[in-house]
Amino acid sequence: MIGIFRxxxxxxxxxxxxxxxxxxxxxxxILSAQCTDARVNMITKDLFVKYPTMEDFARADLSExxxxxxxxxxxxxxxxxxxxxxNMLLSEYDGQVPSGIDELTRLPGVGRKxxxxxxxxxxxxxSIVVDTHVKRISRRLKLTKEEDPEKIEYDLMKxxxxxxxxxxxxxxxxxGRTICKAQSPKCQExxxxxxxxDFADRQHPARHRKTV
Length: 212
Prior knowledge:
By secondary structure, the protein is mainly α. It has 2 domains: 22-121, Orthogonal Bundle (Endonuclease III, domain 1), CATH 1.10.340.30; 129-202, Orthogonal Bundle (Endonuclease Iii, domain 2), CATH 1.10.1670. 56% of the residues lie in helices and 0% in strands. It has 12 helices and no strands. It has helices spanning 2-8, 22-31, 37-50, 54-58, 62-68, 75-92, 101-106, 112-121, 132-140, 149-159, 165-178, 197-203. The protein is elongated and about 55 Å long. The two termini are 38 Å apart.
């Protein structure tokens, strides 16, 4: 399976969220919850000009920040968390984004997914990021039976060699956006169809019929 992904994506895939430093990636990842990366990049293009430093975010007016990020959805909580993050980082971490999973998940609005994005793309720490694409594809490819993202993360850590943890995130996200879509997946052109539970179910529906 890894070999097929490597053939599909022979070139390195960069992080889909535009950023210039760890703090910007943290903000972008918080904004990306239930929002497309493309829309986040549109928002942060202006946001990082208006608030060029972590200190600027920490001092931001909550209502104004909500308006600035409104298009990202869930803007009340996201604005509160971003300002809270900035203040906590300045007061407890000397303005530096930490690399530890425990330290990162202490920050407002930062769960394991966001923490692992930072760990992988900023610090080069091999980490599994479970987003909607990774969840769907890992279940279809029978790498997990779980629904909970954290349990899926641990299953993938067992199934995928550690050296590919960062790559598998980007491969699966790209694969999920282009071929293995939630609706109308392109199974006939998928080189991983032989591994897919859903494809097998469609090919042999009788296996799942109840006998009378």
